């Protein structure tokens, strides 16, 4: 009961956000419209009572006047209903669109509301979000307000009928109400149980797996591998198996709920037999007039509105369950401060920052071994630092902590003395798996600092500095060319071109005032020579910026002011390229091995990648 109240409250919260005054107007009009049938029933009774005398005494008699008045009321109720319907339908459609927007906003706010990314990697929350997206996609919720309005209107009609029946016998409306209540409870349970089951399954691995497999089958991302590796049968077979496994649970649940609903319908039938039976008996005894019988029979039929009102109620119950889930998720995720406001416009770089990592320890959820343990690092303003180490030693993890995307288990990250979550505008970062936004070139470069998306000269310089000077000329719509096929004038980019765009984005962040530039191997699919050239150019361009380069290819970063080697969750070597080579330790061994390999490759290909 408490949970159900919470869901309805959540639905009203979202409705209030969608448009408070429109919601109130639509609600009031729905109640008025719902009470019109009560007026109609009473007016019909009046008409039936007046007609015999009016026929006998003529229309210009007092009885005739009464009949004409009653007729006017019947007609008036019909006309008022039609007018109210016309007035509300526009309001409802506007509010409906806004409600759907409010719902999508709430989901987006929930997912964007966490300062770090750890909650989104929590499998339970990731599953919940996936399930919500699926329900949103399927139900769309574009008619939630129309359905809710219909339910409110029906309830008002039912209450009117209930009040009329009180004047027949005090117990009669209660008996009918119990019958309808039984049906409502069972059908609501059927619906909600279905949605809950669907949601819990949707949030569970099996259903999510089936959706993923369906995506693999129909989307283009895996089309090449599915064909080359001959995976088509496996994908369709596994999809069918996953889908059926999860759906069977829903079907079993629905069958049991269906049986209970049949029981409730039997209770309702008995309630009607009792009330209509007594009504008939009273009429036969002559204790009720014809007009009263007409009024009470209509009222009995109208109590139907106290019961299950069909599709609108079905849809509203589903919408309430989803609203409850959304508001709950929002509350849980958005309790923390926002993911970060848009960056403010700053007049050029605001100076390099000092970075301090103190005794940093971090273990991924579900992992026994810490990825970082007791790591200390201090980077003075303006220094260029390379972080190197074998695959999987925790270089990217360190960068994510530095950006405040995870909270350390112990220790602290300080950027100019502050936590990175306090002011991310000081950081420009491009990760290895940087985002290829299906948006215009302008945003792809300008997202480094949103306030600069209109400054084409700044964007052009950033793109040129990132090595993409010629890219703009090939764009049919210039900065407004969407970087994806399938859009008017859209263009897809090669892997190398995408990297240049991503690097330009990082440079835009610097132009917008970031004092720390981090490149976490966005150049991994360049060859060593190209990566080295690019890193060198960046070091040149960002002389006044604190720079962190991440790579496991040592040759690419040897011109950095300082190099640190990570292993076993901490920094094991720290110095310049020459110092670390002279040290003869881990860096020296790794460098020697890589240099040998490149020399061998170069000899084999006639290329010149040997650089040691
Ligand atoms: N989101 C995550 N959840 C759990 N474990 C993770 C997650 N991300 C990374 N790891 C694990 O943490 C360890 C460090 O990963 P990280 O990506 O930081 O290494 P890296 O040094 O950047 O590697 P590479 O050079 O291959 O990019 C790896 O063992 C990896 O499997």
TrEMBL record:
InterPro entries: AAA+_ATPase, ABC1_TM_sf, ABC_transporter-like_ATP-bd, ABC_transporter-like_CS, P-loop_NTPase, Type_1_exporter. PROSITE patterns: ABC_TRANSPORTER_1, ABC_TRANSPORTER_2. The keyword Transmembrane applies. The chain crosses the membrane at residues 30-55, 67-87, 159-180. Pfam families: ABC_tran. One of its GO terms (molecular function) is ATP hydrolysis activity. It comes from the Bacteria. One of its GO terms (cellular component) is plasma membrane. Residues 355-593 form the ABC transporter domain. Keywords: ATP-binding, Membrane, Nucleotide-binding, Transmembrane, Transmembrane helix. It is found in: Cell membrane. Gene3D superfamilies: ABC transporter type 1, transmembrane domain (1.20.1560.10), P-loop containing nucleotide triphosphate hydrolases (3.40.50.300). SMART domains: AAA. Its main location: membrane. It is a multi-pass membrane protein. This is ATP-binding cassette subfamily B protein. It comes from Actinopolymorpha pittospori.
